Amino acid sequence: MDNEDKELIEEFNSGNKAAFNKIAAKYQNRIYWHARKMVGNHEDADEITQEVLLVIYNKLSSFNYTSSLFTWIYTIVSRRSINLINRRKIKNFFSISHDEIEVKHNFDLLKNIEDKEKLEKLDRVLQFLPAKQREVFILRNYEELSYEEISKITGKSVGGLKANYFHALNKVLEKFNNE
Amino acid sequence: MNNKEKILRYFSDLMSSEEIASFNDELRNSAELRVEVDKIQSQINELKGLNVNEISEIYFANQRVNLTERIKKFNHHFTRKVVLIPVAVLALFILSRLFIPSNRTDVISEEFDISDYFSLSNDDDLNDFEENYFPQMRDFSTEEKLNFMNKNMLTNSDLFQSIAEIDEEIVSAVQNKQILQRGSNEN
User: Fold this and answer.
1) Which of A31, A43, A124, A154 is surrounded by the most beta carbons within 10 Å?
2) Separation CA A140–CA A121 (nearest Å)
């Protein structure tokens, strides 16, 4: 485990709540962007980021060092994101009319037009994937994690993750070629 | 297996070491396969290039303010629960002691008041009794009423039993009362 993370956790547990701000500053960007790629819009990503930081604040004292802080945090982000995606799916399934399907405002804080276009294109490609395939694709391609690290985050077997990645890559390349 | 599937398996790390060795041989010998691999590799690189991972610091600064508020609210709700739950349990305990009647039967003779039976008003149950006996007992005292009923063998009668809330236990308590024995002696 990262020594800096260990020191910050110990500082936090000894009563220095300001140590949490340092942890938040270190991971908030990655938390947000992972959530953002998973859920496809800023509003939901913002909500997930806040929830994750709140969980970290409340549960850090019971963190037991069986994984790295990074893995622990990403596990929380991953679960929250997939739960939200599933809730959204159920909600849309039971909507009476398509007009009632919730449209999230895609209020982005990107000023750079090139970045906005890139993100829109990425959203179109990623939202095409089922949640579990999307997750492994994002963690492998954008976080550049090994299958073993992804397995610790998702709780899935390495073999299963490889199969998921295979199918995700196939679909993504097809979609990408049609864009 | 077609070339595309082989290439995707290769990039997904799904191949065994033998399969990789065989694939590498094929790659060396097939220009077509090399072209396809390069094409897919460049598409993957293009996808990776779509990665955006920077956002304005102002967003996170604002978010920390919101988070601080949420933490305060969470702690406030948590403290309320920690205080309120034991208070609620204590209040329920006190109320249960005050309002749930005890099931003890040994106090009947002390707590029982026969005059309650004559003041209880359940018109339907008392119809027969009132019609037949009440006019005679209207001006009786409680003791006289009891004596009258005892004398007229009414305590075992259906009429007496039909009075609301009279049951065998109460009837025997009535019969055990000194008051009845005094009454019957006098008669």
Assistant:
1) A31
2) 19
